[in-house]
Amino acid sequence: MDTMTPQSRLHRALNLLKYISKPSPIVTIELDKNTYGLENAYTTFDRIQGTVIITVDSETPLENISITFEGTAKVSIGRETCTLSNTEATQTFLQLKQPVTRGIDSVPKILQPGCSYKLPFTFVVPQYLPCQSCNHNISCSDLKQAHLQLPPTLDDPKLGHGKRPTLDYVSSGKCHISYRVRVVLSKGSIPGTTRRTRLVDCAKSVRVLPISMHAPHPGLPIVSSDTYTQMEQSLSQGFAQPGLGELITEASHIPPISLHYPIDKDGAHTAVRLNLRFNPTIDAAPPQLKKASAKFQISTFYSPVPWEDYPSWTDRGLVNGWDRGAFTDTFPIMAFSMGSVQWVKHQDMGDEHRIQGHDGESLSDHTAPRNGSRSYYTASIVLPIVLPPRMTSIPTFHSCLISRTYNINLRLSFHTPKPALQTASTTIKVPLMLQYVSNNHHTSLVHEESDASDSTVMNVLPPPEYTATA
Questions:
Q1: Which of 16, 18, 274, 451 is such that its CA lies 20 to 30 A from the CA of 178?
Q2: What spans are recorded as compositionally biased (Pro residues) (predicted)?
Q3: Taking the domains of the chain in order of start, what are their residue ranges?
């Protein structure tokens, strides 16, 4: 029951108004300039150094100063219901704290006008996240390892899009990953309450592009159910005509494409080897390739509920559209005519088909060769894959809420042999993993120094669990 009189309520309201109306301190976050790379962009083991500058117009009591480096992921899913509600989730997966010395020689308890208080800070971009960052159910240990890798900046609205140096944006705006240096100044509790007052809460966003210090874990799958690296296709002479044979196209393993940091001016390069096999059903020559083209496919998966397995376009939650979201962009990267392909003819000994004799004895039948022919043809071609600098994107990653994957979609068109002389085509979808690697000794040197000194200038705080709102 409220026993306050109207006079006491008015007195409390006036005190609160006077308390709130005081001018707030002015806080500026200045980052030291990078000697290389993109502006305000950092990679693994880089030092994020700078200064926090505080000024006030009047005497201002100051109880606490917090300087942190934070990584946050946010996801929003629109549900098609009668209320058109959204499901949102926020996860602070990283929080490093800079100790601040208080006292006469540094920052006093009461800030004085006319003084400029400067607080230097140093953070080191870690390679791994704290284990507490991923505390949900997962399907395998490899996924846990992937979720504890530092994810890259993705579509941070605070960084601006006018001078975007990488394809880190998403067209839907439904998910983003951001990093920032955050400063919070607070003083005593509001009169009549126990809640501490925040004088200032400001932040400076930075871009993080983690590098790969080693090759991907051997058990880390990059092939999902929606990729196909082998295609079998029957070739025909036309309607109601006997088939010519079967063409099998298979892509050999693609090593991860490595992108140098700073970003390579010439783009990223790799090559795809395609192994071809033609099994004729009649006495026919193998087809001749006519044209090859490739498209670069970028896929982003997101969910307010942590992923328990690697995301895929065939995921049931994504198909239902309830608690999963995804989108993709495709860019053409090459197209050229093919010269003559050198086919090599092989003699097939045929599989031994077992037939049953009159006396029940199992016999070998060499008269039933595989695919109806004792010969087949093979060929191999190598297609160069070049990602132009404007398409140089962020590395492949899998985090608790957001993932980014890549594919190279290859399409081959060819002529069937005469007299059919028809045009046919086949397409395969090859998974691709992008990684950033250091192009100098900067990373190793910083790593050696960080073990000795950086632990004294920042503390790792257990990040809170992700929060979801419907």
A1: 451
A2: 461-470
A3: 22-189+196-209, 229-347+374-436
Residue 173 has pLDDT above 50, yes or no: yes
Confidence (pTM): 0.79
- Which DSSP state fits 228? B
Residues forming a β-bridge with 78: 86
**The most confident of 12-26, 55-69, 389-403, by mean pLDDT:** 55-69
Phi, psi of 384 (to 5 degrees): -70, 140
Distance from the Cα of residue 72 to its chain's centroid: 14
pLDDT band at 306, cuts 50/70/90? very high
Spatial distance between the Cα atoms of 292 and 289, rounded to a whole number of angstroms: 8
Q: Which of 432, 210, 263 is nearest to 331 (CA)?
A: 432
Q: CB neighbours of 294 closer than 8 A, spacing ≥ 6?
A: 272, 332, 333, 334, 335, 383, 385, 408, 409, 410, 411
Q: How, if at all, do strands 344-347 and 375-387 pair?
A: antiparallel
Q: How far is CA 397 from CA 130, 134, 211, 338, in A?
A: 17, 14, 11, 35
CA separation for the pair 390, 153 (Å, rounded): 17
Residues 6+ apart with CB under 8 A from 364: 352, 353, 354
List, as own/partner pairs, every contact residues 99-102 make where C-beta atoms lie below 8 angstroms and the sequence separation is at least 24, other chains included. Answer: 99/457, 99/458, 99/459, 100/65, 100/66, 100/67, 102/65
Are 118 and 64 in contact by the 8 Å Cβ rule? The answer is: no
Paired residues of 299 in beta bridges: 328, 405
Strands 196-208 and 175-189: antiparallel
CATH 3.40.462 fits 229-347+374-436, yes or no: no
Strands 110-111 and 86-98: unpaired
Residue 187's alpha-carbon distances to 110, 190, 194, 198, 200, in angstroms, are 10, 9, 12, 7, 10
User: Do the domains 229-347+374-436 and 22-189+196-209 match in fold?
Assistant: yes
**What does the DSSP 8-state code read for residue 323?**
S
Report how far residue 281's alpha carbon sits from residue 55's, in angstroms, rounded to the nearest whole number.
85
In CATH terms, is domain 22-189+196-209 a member of 3.50.50.60? no
d(CA 368, CA 243): 18
DSSP 136-196: S--S-HHHHHHHTBPPPPBS-GGG-STT--SS---SS--EEEEEEEEEEEEEEEPTTS-PE
Tell which residue, 384, 438, 434, has the closest CA to residue 258. 434
Q: Is the pLDDT of residue 349 over 70?
A: no
